[in-house]
Write a structure and sequence with these properties.
The protein has eight helices and six strands. The chain has helices at residues 9-12, 26-35, 56-64, 78-81, 90-95, 106-109, 123-133, 152-161, and strands at 20-21, 40-44, 50-55, 116-118, 137-142, 145-151. Strands 1-2-3 form a three-stranded mixed β-sheet. The radius of gyration is 17 Å and the shape is globular.
């Protein structure tokens, strides 16, 4: 077992990063996040360039705006209900629109700021980046290219395994 103080982002990161495209509809995004049991993902454009991050919270925030709320009181699809453990409470669930296809794209709701660390960043640097940014995931990059992702759950696993 490697001591946390000696570990780097490279040691902890998940290398196979699921990404979403900036031109996806938010309906496609929601389905992708739910199917992959993730709460957010990096956003890329043609060529794989990293341009932002998007999460279920962004979808809820967008759909909570008065001009985007549906006037119909429809029941959400079962796959949304089954994933309430991803942090959506009843109020969040009620704010989502159901029954209509949205023309809004990921680029319209994503956060364009990207928090990243180098592959050789220490675990303290990774934690500091996440705390300062108040974020749940940080991207690991090399020369601006996405190499991996470290989530809050990954950090908890590191702490647990260090015992």
């Amino acid at each position: 077992m490697q001591v946390v103080a000696q570990m780097t982002a490279r040691d902890v990161m998940t290398r196979d990063v699921l990404t979403v495209r900036s031109d996806w509809s938010i309906d496609r995004l929601a389905e992708f996040l739910i199917q992959n049991d993730i709460s957010g993902a990096p956003v890329v454009v043609d060529g794989g360039m990293l341009v932002g991050v998007v999460s279920l919270k962004d979808i809820v925030r967008h759909n909570s705006l008065p001009e985007t709320r549906s006037t119909e009181n429809q029941r959400p699809p079962a796959y949304y209900i089954d994933h309430a453990e991803l942090g959506l409470d009843e109020e969040d669930m009620a704010s989502l629109r159901w029954g209509e296809v949205s023309s809004v794209q990921v680029r319209d709701i994503m956060t364009p700021a990207v928090f990243s660390v180098a592959e050789d960043a220490s675990m303290a640097d990774v934690a500091d980046t996440m705390v300062r940014g108040r974020i749940h995931r940080v991207f690991v990059t090399r020369d601006g290219s996405l190499q991996g992702i470290i989530t809050a759950l990954d950090m908890l696993n590191v702490i647990r395994d260090d015992r």
